[in-house]
Amino acid sequence: MSSTELEAKNTKLQTDLREVAQDIVARAMKGGASAAECVVREGDEFSTLVRLGQVETLKESGSKSIGVRVFFGQRAASTYSSDFSKEGLDRMVKSALELAKITSEDPFGGIPDASQLGQLQGNLDLYHEDVYSLHGAARIDYARRAEKAALDFDPRIKNSEGGSFDAATGHKVLANSHGFVGEYSRSYCSVAAVPIAQTDEGAMQRDYWYSVARTLKKLDAPEKVGRIAAERTLRRLGAKKAKTATVPIVFDPMVSTSILEHIFEGINGDSVYRGASFLAGKLGQKIAGDNVTVIDDGTIPGGFGTAPFDGEGIPTRRTVVIENGVLKSYLLNTYTAKKLGLQTTANAARGLAGTPGIGPGNYFLQPGAKSPKELVAGIKEGLYVTEFLGQGVNLVTGDYSRGASGLWIQNGEITYPVEEITVAGNLKDLFFNISEIANDLEFRGSVAAPTIRIDGLTVGGE
Amino acid sequence: MDKYKDKARFFFEHYGLTERDLERYLGAALSAGGDYADLYFEYLSSTALSMDESMIKSASQGISAGCGVRVVSGERTGYAYTDDLSSDRILHAAKTAALIASAPARATVAGFQKTAARSLYPVTLPSVDAEISAKVELLMRADKTARGYDPRIKEVRANYGDELRNILVVASDGTFAEDSQPLARMNVSCIAKTEGNSARGTSGGGGRVALDFFFGDKNPEFFARESARQAILQLDAREAPAGEMEVVLGPGWPGVLLHEAVGHGLEADFNRKKTSAFAGLIGKRVASEKCTVVDNGTMPWRRGSLNVDDEGEPTQETVLIEKGILKGYLSDKLSSRLMGIADTGNGRRESYEHIPMPRMTNTYMLAGNDNPEDIIRSVKHGVYAVNFGGGQVDITNGKFVFSASEAYMIEDGKITAPIKGATLIGNGPDVLTRVSMVGNDLKLDEGVGTCGKDGQAVPVGVGIPTLKVDRLTVGGTARKDPGGFMQ
Description:
The structure holds two protein chains of two kinds.
Chain A: H1 3-30, E1 35-51, E2 54-72, E3 75-81, H2 86-99, H3 136-153, E4 157-176, E5 181-198, E6 204-206, E7 209-213, H4 222-234, E8 245-246, E9 249-251, H5 253-267, H6 269-274, E10 294-297, E11 318-323, E12 326-327, H7 334-340, E13 348-349, E14 357-358, E15 362-365, H8 372-377, E16 381-389, E17 399-410, E18 413-426, H9 427-430, E19 434-437, E20 447-448, E21 452-454, E22 458-460
Parallel strand pairs in A: 9-16, 15-20
Antiparallel strand pairs in A: 1-2, 1-4, 2-3, 4-5, 5-6, 5-7, 8-22, 9-21, 10-11, 10-15, 11-12, 13-14, 16-17, 17-18, 18-22, 19-21
Helix pairs in contact in A: 3-4
Chain B: H1 2-5, H2 10-15, H3 19-29, E1 36-52, E2 55-73, E3 76-82, H4 87-98, E4 113-114, H5 132-149, E5 153-171, E6 175-194, E7 197-207, H6 220-235, E8 241-249, H7 256-263, H8 268-272, E9 293-296, E10 317-322, E11 325-326, H9 333-339, E12 347-348, E13 357-358, E14 362-365, H10 372-377, E15 381-393, E16 399-411, E17 414-419, E18 422-427, H11 428-431, E19 435-438, E20 443-444, E21 450-453, E22 456-459, E23 461-464, E24 467-475, E25 478-479
Parallel strand pairs in B: 4-6, 8-15, 8-25, 14-23
Antiparallel strand pairs in B: 1-2, 1-5, 2-3, 5-6, 6-7, 8-24, 9-10, 9-14, 10-11, 12-13, 15-16, 16-17, 16-18, 18-24, 19-24, 20-23, 21-22
C-alpha cells in the first residue's frame, strides 16, 4: 500500500469513528441522559519473537472497541462493547441508561464544564506510519539481530528467551455532550533481547534490554540492544546473598522510576480524597529533600505520555508536582478535583469502562549534576539495585519492603552481584533521604528518573 | 433458562456458525502447511460495581467477543485474531496466521470429536444475568458492616465483579469443546485511622459461582468483618524483623508461596526451553518428604477450575511434587508434542487476543500430620504470616518473593505482636527442602487470585496447610542483631 493510499484509508476510518462516537452521544441524550461521553479505541499490533535464531511466534491483528458513559443528573453508569453492529451499539446505549438507575447521586459527578474542554494544537509528533513500513522478513530480522548480538557477545550466554520486534498503532476518539470531539493516533515500535547466561556449575541468570520509540528512525540498532542485554545478564552471574545491614543504596534508572511511581500513587487525587495515602493533606508541605523536583508534562512533542487532551477532553498541561521538596500539586481529574475543591490537572485516564482514573503524562524527576559513576564513587559500602521483585509497598502507611537484586559497592567501585535480598524502610523517610540525584535522565516510557542514591534503608539478607 | 442448558450451541445460535464453516476456517489456517491449527471463539459479558463513601459510584457492563486463530508449524506459532465474527474476517485472520508456515496446504479436517461434557460449575442462572439490585445489596451490606465494626474504620470500598465467558475451541486434531464459564468475586477494603496513624485491610472471595454464593457463609458481612479486622490490627503493628529466620505460613492464601516458588518454574514451556531453574530436575528431590504438591483444575466451583482448558483439553489433577520428588510439569498441547510428555490440560489464555501457554489452575500442597499449634510451639524466634498480597518469581534464577499483609512475631513458641507488612524472599528449587512441618489443616484461598505471565492474566487458586519453613529471608526493617556495619 502506498503512503497516500494509507493516509486516505486512515482519514476515512477516522471520520467514521468520529461520527460513531458523536452518534452514540446523541443517542444517549435522546434516551434521556443529561450528559454523555463516548470513547472509541482502535488498535493494530504486530509482534514477532525469534528464539535461538528461529522464528517462534508471529502475531498480527487489530481490534476496536467502544464505551459510553451516561449521566442522569448526578448518577452515572458506563457500558462498552466490541460489537459495532447497529444492534450491538443500541444495546450498549440502552444498557448504560438502564444501569444509571441503580447508581447513587454523587454531588461531585459529571463531565467537565464546556469551558474547560479543548485540545493542544499543532503536531505533537505522536504518530509515524513507518513503524509498519518494514516487510515481514525485515521485522523478523530485527528480532533475530538483537538476539544474535546477545548470543555472540560472550560464550557464557548459552540460552535465550529470544529477541523480539513489536509494532503497534492506536487511535482514540473522544466525544461528549458539550460538543467536544477529539481524536489522535499514536505509534510505537520496540526491539528487545532476553539472553540467559550460565556458569560452569549450571547456575543461570536472565536479564533483558530494549529500545522503544514512536518511529523506527529513533529505535536503537538491534545489535546495541542485544549487546546491552548480554552485559546486563553477565554481570548477574555468580550472585550471592548479602548480609543484613543498613547501607546507602544506589537505584539504577530502571528501578528509580519505581520511586516516582510511589509518589504518583500517593499524590493522585483518588488516593488523596480517600485518605488512602500518607501524602494526603500535605499540599504546600515538605514531603522530600530540597533536591527533589518532580514534573508532570503531557505536552512534550513525541513523548510517551503525550496527548492533545486527557481522558475527559481537557487540554494536557505541565504541572510542577514537587518543587525543591515541597508538594505543589496533586495530579487530578475532574471528579477528584471537585472533591478536593481544586482544579483538574488534566490527568484523567479514560478506559473503556467505569469512571475515569488518573494517569501521568510525561512524569519525571529533575536530574542533578553528578554522573552515575560519581554517585557510586562516593560510597564505601553499599548496594546498587538493578531489579526489584514483587510489590511490597503500602501507600497508607508508607511501609516499603521489596525483593531485590543488584551489585555490591565497595570502596566506590561496583564489585560482585547480589541476589535474594530485600530492601525495606518507610517512604515518609525515603523521600527525604534521596541524598543524590545523577544527571542521566532518559525517557524510556512515560515515567523517567535518573540514577539516585537513597540512604537509611535496610538490606535484608543472611 | 434453557439458553444456558444447551450452552454447546452458543456460537451456532448467536453467530450462525456451522461445522462446515469451522472446517473451512481451519482449512484456510492450514493452507500454507503447518502441523496444527485451532480456533478459539470467545464471547465475554461482564459487570462491575463499586461502592465508595457509601455510594455506588461506578457501575459498568460490557461485552467483548472475538476469535483467535493459531497455526503451529514445528516450534513456530502464527497467531491472528478478529473481533468481528463474520466469515470474511475469520478467514482473513486464518490466512494471516497461516503466514508462519511455508509448505503445501494440508488436508483439512473432517469431523470433530466432541469433548465429553463435564460440569464443575453448574450454575442455573449465571450471576452476570442476575438482578443488579441484588449485587448492589451485597455492596451496601459490606459497607454497613465494615463501618459498624469499629469507629476507627474511616474509609470503606467494596467492589463486586462478575463475568460469563462462552468459549468454543475447535482444532485440526478433531478437538471440539465448548464451555460456559461463570466467575464472580467481591472485595472489601478498609482504612482505619487514629490520631497520627493509619492502616489498611482487605478481604474478598468468590469463584465460578452464581450470585447465591454470596448469600451463604461467604457473605458480604464475612468479607467486611475480615477486612476491618485486618485494618484495626495493623494500627498496632510493629516493625517487621530483617534477615533469615524461621517462618510459619498459615493455611490458605499463603499458598501463593507454592505458586511463585515452584508453580511457575514447573510450567512446561520454561522447561522445554531450559530457561527454568527446575529444568532437568524431574525425579530429583526439590522438597522435604513431607511435601506433596498438586495442580488441580477439576475442583467444583473453584476460581482456578475449568471444565476444559483454552485448547479444549479436559483439565485434570496433576502431581507436581510427590513426597519431595519432582514428578512432572504443567503442559499445553505445544509443549506436550515437542517434549513428548502428556498434555495436562493447562493450556490457558487471557482472551481471544492471546496465544495459549501452560498456566496453573488451583495449586496446593496436600495436608500433613502436624498439629498447627505444635508447629507454632516449635518456633523460638520467627514470623507467623497468615495473609499475603501478591508475589513474583524470576523463573531462571529461581528467586521469588511474596508480601505478607498480616503477620505476627513468634517468640518462645507463642504468637505475640502483629508486625508490619514485609516481603519474604527465597529460592524456588530449595525453599521446600526446608519445610520441616506440614499441618493437617489444608485450606484453599477464598477465590481472589489472578496470575500474570507474559502480560496475560488468568484466574487461579492456591492453598496450603500450616507450614513451617526453617529458614527464609524476611524483609523488614528491625535488625535482629544491631551489630554489623552502619554508615
